[in-house]
Amino acid sequence: MIDINYNLCDVCGTCASVCPVNAIEIFEKYITINNETCTLCRNCVEICPVEALTLTEETTNVER
User: Fold this and answer.
1) Which of 30, 36, 47, 52 has its CA at 20 to 30 Å from residue 9's CA atom?
2) Rounded to whole angstroms, how far apart are CA atoms 6 and 22?
3) Spatial separation of the C-alpha atoms in residues 19 and 62, rounded to whole Å
């Protein structure tokens, strides 16, 4: 699962632009990630300019 730090996120939309399955939705003051659609490709985590997105421990312990 991708965790969003809302204190860091500036809603720039960069993460949504690299999501291959359109799992990220941008609203006026926040973003959401549809965890059922997300494939955990990590594109959003790697590109976020303010490091507001991280993989949760729950996800990193799961074998792919």
Assistant:
1) 36
2) 19
3) 21
Hunting for tokens 């720039």 — which residue is that? 12
Q: Six-digit token pair at 44?
A: 């959003």
Domain range holding 15?
2-60
0.85 exceeded by pTM: no
| Average predicted confidence (pLDDT) for the chain | 91
CATH (domain of 47) = 3.30.70.20
Contacts 24+ apart (CB under 8 A), 9-17: 9/50, 9/52, 9/53, 10/50, 10/52, 12/49, 12/50, 14/47, 14/48, 14/49, 15/43, 15/44, 15/47, 15/48, 15/53, 16/44
